[in-house]
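Hi L., both proteins are below.
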Amino acid sequence: MDFSSEQWLVLIVLALGLLSLLGTAIGGERGISSWGPVIFVRTTRGLGLLDRLAGARRLWRLTTTLCMPLVLAGMIYFMLLLLLMVYVMWRAPPEPGSYSSPRNVLLIPGVNQYIPLVWGWIALCVTIVIHELSHGILCRVEGIRVKSMGAIFLLFPIGAFVEPDDSELFGDERNPPKATRQARMRILSAGVIANFLVAALALTLFFGPVINALSPVDRVIVVSVEPESGFAGDIRAGMVASGAGSLEELYRIASEGRSLELFDDAGRASISGEPALGVLVVDTFDGSPAKDAGMPDRFVITEINDTRIESLESFRDYMNSTSPGQVLKINTTVGTYSVKLAPKGDGTGMMGVAISGTALCINGVILQEFQAERFLSLMRSIPSSGLRGFNTLMGLPFAGIGGFTSDGFQGFSGSMLYLFEPAGWAEPLGGKIFWIANLLLWIGWINMYAGLFNCLPTIPLDGGHIVRDMIRTLLDRVMSERSAERFTRGIVAALSWLVISSLIFTVLGPYLAHGIPL
């Protein structure tokens, strides 16, 4: 069942209310406690494992000390990214949509539409266990007692925890902390560092041997279905055309009056009708001649001034021969438009549309050749693209890459399974290579995201405690202990307020600007 954003919000609130009552009812049970709807299950079993793992004390201390700059870099990067999102939201808040939907606010696999249920939960469990286990190991390395370990439930398991003795780690009103400031920063950084290292390993394998073991398959896929086409319920974006690897071949089949067969994991469908070959417009720019002429955002151009336009090259050749102020008659799959061109920097005329390439339109169903080789090339280039590649990786589940999978890339599933095949060392694995790819992608991505989020300089996240100790260490050199503590508290409070208010604003911004859609 497909719920609206408001229905999801109501369901979440009701579920949290029921869990709050349940948490109150079972709060007195041994090993179980609750905080509102959140239920904590504690145990002392397994604490001996922490002592055994902490045996290599020098190795653990050396690793965390050398990797501390990663934590600081992650803190700076994610904070700047958050502030950039706030700036963009303030300047040009988008319309409320899937990104701001209540179900997509939290990165809960299966609830968040961009994160797959199975692979997402496997990756999330690995991430949480690695993070908390690392905290516990470093506590024992530094001689800090661990009181318990456990799991956190909210509708379903949402996390794990290691519970150190806070009085030994942070101190209290009567006793100073047992841990030195440097030891405490190592303990608090351990979870983030472990997440980063696991992410680096998983993504290195994904973008290395796994991606290089995939070979493209020539396929034509459905890229969009117009609501008025009559096929909206039967034909979906991403469906693959059967028996043909090129638009020209499909055009010939449809021109002969034969049906085209489409399929995906959810079923099969067929389509027939008069085909139209042209170039696909995926956006009409605001204030452009095309927008002024009333052109929609997505359609196929088939003719310009009675000249056939059947490829991206023919479109570019024609537009390069135009001049500013020239009036063109544009025949499209949604009607005919008269467009007066605006001046372009090279002296030619500009229509003001974004073209994605050659497309075939049959009764409102638009198909394109999936450029699998180019997709693989873009994926393989991410690790070598520096900060731009890292930003692409961060947004991969939500925005896809290079215009491919504009609704996000959730891994090799669905129609993606028909667009690639294993090659080289992976050929004997068959379809299991896609399992490996999805596992590595999501373990890497969620570990990376969890590590970055925990870097944010706000209490109670790890980054908040770390930045507090860093600031206090610097201020102790230039002022008295009392003044340093007062200034540190003020700076940390200001940073926490900035982070929390920024997170809230990025979620509520579209609704504050445009209202709640009815």
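That was the first. Here is the second:
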Amino acid sequence: MARPRIAVFSGPTATIGNSPPLVTSNKARAQYGLPLATPDGASPRFDLLRPQRIAAPVTVYVEAYTAHPLEKDAIELYAAPDGWLDALGAFRESEPAGGGTPVYVLTISPEDGLYPLPYMARQADGSPWEDATTHPFAAVGSSRQTFYPDASRIYEEIDRLGVGGDGNPVALSNMVDFDFYRAAPPGGYTKGLPAASRTDTGEGDIAPESLGEDYYIYYPHHLSREPTLTALVRATNMVQNALSGGDYIGAQWLEGSPTTEESMYWLGLVIDTTVPLVGHAAQRPHQTLSADGDRNIVDGVKFITSGAAIDDTGRDRIGSVMVVDEMVYSAREVTKVDARPGGYEVAGGHGGVVADMGGYGPPQVTYVPNRKHTYRSEVRLTALPGTVTGVTGSLRDGVTTIEVPVKDARGDLLASAMPLVTITKYSRYSSLETGPKGDPDPAGEVEIIARIASNLVAAPLSGFVGEGMSPYGSANPTTNAALQVAIFSGMPVVRVGRGNTGGMAYKQDPLFISGNNLTSTKARILLMAALLKLGALPPAGDPYNPTADEIAAVLELTRQYQEIFDTH
């Protein structure tokens, strides 16, 4: 019988897939005559150990009864040690006269896997490594990467070094098999990688990769790069194609903690699958003190394998979630509020914690979301049309419609179709310009009008999210006037309350879409997906002065947008 499998996708800027810079150990510094590391002006008590592979078998003498300070207190419960070391360090099978050091004798081998050892590497000029870069603000070619290119090493270190509460290994690999995918990875192979050396799922050699195009980091901070809409398309297609084959019981997505909630909401909307989609983040990098990412990964595996998310028909009943800090959050509602464990909250004021990891017991579902997701979503990839209507032109010369291909012949999402949705935020005392007799003048919203003009040139599918007063989403009249120009230029506009609103942005103006209790970032994600489903609004001949028939046409399609926002 085939073992169950989980697909693991590496996303961008992922602290959960990051490690501290490899700093040259004092063992190496002493060996090569280098100054000892003195963080905070004081020599450390012990040398830092980092997981590494030994190259040949080594015989080791381990002092007996040193794994816990009270082992000797129960020495009568133990078998005799393997031998003793005398005062000169020679091994004796029997205890020498005058006593000796009891030891266990073992041989450690490369096949054992990783061992925590001092880091012995130095820079090419013989100087010690003090950070990820050869010098402050070094260019890419003079910097090492701290992020892993895929998650296989993370899972290996959990397997090798993770200790369960019962004293046994965590042993993820004993539970399920894993396939690792580089969806939008945080680390890259700048020199490429032969196919035989790949640890991810894929075919052929990996070509040399470029920062900001193939992988996305945040450290070193001066080299930070953000993924583009094209990267999101590649990742979306990879996840959908991987899960379409029915080979997996679930999927895990690893990303940076500030943005995992957005990616998971997107995947829950567009991926057509019946298996659980589980997102993970970390507030502290892998290998650091009290790193939370490893625990989140283990909990995710536990959640998927428990079947807690599965209904009576064998399909996921919860939708995409984030599993962090032993809680299971609906991706639609979760938001990060602080950079610390426990720094996640439920947005919108209406539920959001769908399950508890159960501590030492099994996970328990606490409520099932009443929103469409994955295989029930109206905006899932397989339900999107092949083409939709977009808009192009200018506010001065007129707006016309064009056909925008959404998917290719294989059914993959096209990068050229990805909508550009802009968030505009309300604040009081922000308007300078008014029209005659104090009427709102759209020209006063310079940024909105400029964005409309740019969208008409470069983004045939585009829209706005207006983050207004909480909870209703209302904005000042000038902003409303400018956003109505966007609407009659073919760009739908969603209204939400600002901040972590606890109420619903109920519909007040039928030209605008109500975002319910979504945050502006989540409303942006849903509007992007809805644009791929419904296309642009019908533009007016003059976006500043639409006719009655043009208003009616906009209202009709806006109602269809509203249905999606009311149910997803």
